[in-house]
Design goal:
alpha/beta; 41% helix; two-stranded antiparallel sheet; eight-stranded mixed β-sheet
């Protein structure tokens, strides 16, 4: 039993037509028919009932289909693993993330890496905000992280998302009746925010926008992540300034409103140390460039690739 025979069998079983199966495999119909005959001879059973008008699986063919698919999938994993080892695409890559922006982007990256780079283990470290991630990337204890620009000297970054700030309100709040809210409208509000000690870019942008509106935000409670922050908002503990991706977190009694006027925008990027020569990291970044492309609305206002 050869893998190419099983591949031919699966193609015919799924197409139920030798001509279409041969086109799918990019071979002539005669060699495909020969593969099926050899497989039937090897197994000692008939796999298809064939007439001039139709092709149907026999009971034995039906029994073989799923095991054949499984074997081909396993063979594909073996092939990719060996090729990854040959090209140095093996090892561990540590990824730092925090906040709603990375919650939506991270699964796209990890699933693609898991599928295409089986020799690489992704080690995820959550609740790691921009300030902490920058420090860890710089000292070499973190390979790559989701951060807000600008980045530090010696760190390279590529923008993967543009995030506008929004305000999250309890659904009973008077401002919830408005379509848009100005920062000045929040002067007397109680705020829930990310921890100051963790270097949250969202918190820094919120504080700066409030100061520009003529007041200092009264922060009454800190939350370690977006989900907990919104839970506190829904419980009536205060309001929160969040990024637009936070709308993907659905909690009762929480509404989101756009800001009026010029809205702060945060470029979110993947960042890594410029001197990191890891082949595994390079492979992950190649995948990331495809599945997390730089958004069209990024104008390059921040220098994402500062000189060493």
């Amino acid at each position: 039993m050869e893998l190419r025979h099983l591949s031919g069998f699966v193609a015919v079983a799924e197409e139920l037509h030798f001509g279409r199966a041969a086109e799918r495999l990019h071979i002539a119909q005669s060699p495909l028919s020969q593969q099926i005959r050899l497989l039937e001879r090897d197994l000692g059973v008939k796999l298809f009932d064939r007439t001039t008008r139709s092709v149907r699986l026999t009971v034995a063919g039906q029994a073989l289909l799923e095991p054949a698919r499984h074997l081909l999938a396993e063979a594909s994993v073996v092939r990719r693993t060996v090729q990854a080892a040959h090209y140095g695409e093996v090892g561990r890559v540590t990824v730092g993330f925090a906040g709603a922006s990375s919650y939506s982007a991270l699964p796209l990256l990890t699933r693609a890496v898991g599928s295409e780079l089986p020799g690489i283990e992704m080690v995820l470290e959550g609740q790691m905000y921009t300030g902490e991630a920058m420090g860890r990337i710089t000292d070499g204890t973190l390979d790559v992280g989701f951060v807000a620009l600008p980045v530090r000297r010696g760190v390279v970054a590529r923008v993967v998302r543009m995030e506008r700030l929004m305000v999250a309100l309890p659904d009973s709040h008077p401002l919830a009746a408005r379509e848009r809210v100005a920062f000045a409208d929040l002067a007397k509000e109680r705020f829930v925010a990310f921890p100051v000690a963790r270097g949250s870019a969202v918190r820094e942008a919120m504080v700066q926008a409030c100061h520009e509106a003529g007041f200092a935000p009264r922060i009454v409670q800190e939350a370690p992540d977006s989900y907990n922050m919104l839970a506190l908002v829904g419980a009536g503990m205060g309001i929160a300034v969040v990024v637009r991706s936070a709308r993907d977190i659905h909690l009762e009694h929480v509404v989101f409103r756009e800001f009026a006027g010029d809205v702060p925008v945060l470029p979110i990027a993947l960042a890594w140390r410029s001197g990191n020569r890891s082949a595994a990291l390079a492979a992950v970044l190649r995948v990331a460039e495809r599945v997390l492309p730089t958004p069209d609305d990024y104008d390059g206002e921040f220098d994402a690739r500062p000189p060493l």
